[in-house]
Amino acid sequence: MKLVFDGVSAGYAEVPAVHDVTLTIAPGEFVAVVGPNGSGKSTLLKTVYRALRPRAGAVLFGDEDAWMARHRDVARRVGVLGQDQAGGYDFTAREAVRLGRYPHLGAFDRLTAADEAVVADALERTGATVFADRPLSTLSGGERQRVLLARALAQQPELLVLDEPTNHLDPAHQISALSLVASLGVTVVAALHTLDLAARHATMIVALKAGTIAAAGPPGEVLTPAVFRDVFEVDGSVVADPVDGRPRVLLREMRG
Questions:
Q1: How far is CA 98 from the centre of its chain?
Q2: Pick from 230, 151, 162: which is nearest to 192 by CA?
């Protein structure tokens, strides 16, 4: 799915948290939205999955205004892992992932064997099968995060919107989760705090500073010493991983 931000401003307070964001994301792109706390990452993502209506501008799915589309169509096309989706603790993990199939069902339809196969595959791919029948209330934060990602995958969306998807995950699951997302071939927009993960997995990085785009483009063009200093107030450099040659980000306290 092609995603377009056309002059988007949005926020809860009198001063918008994001201001005049214009950006085109091609189908199949993996975009990492990065920036310090309070830079507007979550606010921008909320305008995509219709949790926060833009004050100005438009969010477009292709040529269609996201906020004019039918709710059911958006639910089918857009999978979401947000920071405030930890509810439903009475569900088992499997039941929570099944919710990802409901946008594809009619009002009186039940899950079919094919739907259950999609659910089982999503649990397997996120490493959640081993606790699929446990209540969410008994799971750790990292385990719940994997269930929420599995639910988004079970939707089989055209666009995945992920707000800090690696929260609570240990290093192994951080890497596997983002590798999985990158392999799906769908459009991905993910707010990430860890620049090293963004560099390794994203095809495009958007750096936000005070609600505006400070830099956008391929990782090699955005992750520069100047951007590290200007946006993140740290010194840093990008080096090639000695094993696979992929970019690695090294950060240091800014001096001088």
A1: 20
A2: 162
pLDDT tens string, the chain, 256 residues long: the values are: 999 999 999 998 888 899 999 999 999 999 999 999 999 999 999 999 999 999 999 999 999 999 999 988 999 999 999 876 655 568 999 999 999 999 998 877 899 999 999 999 999 999 999 999 999 999 999 999 999 999 999 999 999 999 999 989 999 999 999 999 999 999 999 999 999 999 999 999 999 999 999 999 999 999 999 999 999 999 999 999 999 888 899 999 988 6
- Reported as half-sphere exposure (CB side, CA atoms, 13 A), residue 178 has a value of 28
Q: What is the DSSP letter of 138?
A: G
Q: What angle do CA 205, 210, 216 make, to 5 degrees?
A: 20
The CATH class, in words, for 3-253 is alpha beta
As a whole number of angstroms, the distance between CA 59 and CA 41 comes to 15
Domain positions in the chain:
3-253
Alpha helices by DSSP H, 126-244: 141-154, 171-183, 195-201, 219-222, 225-227
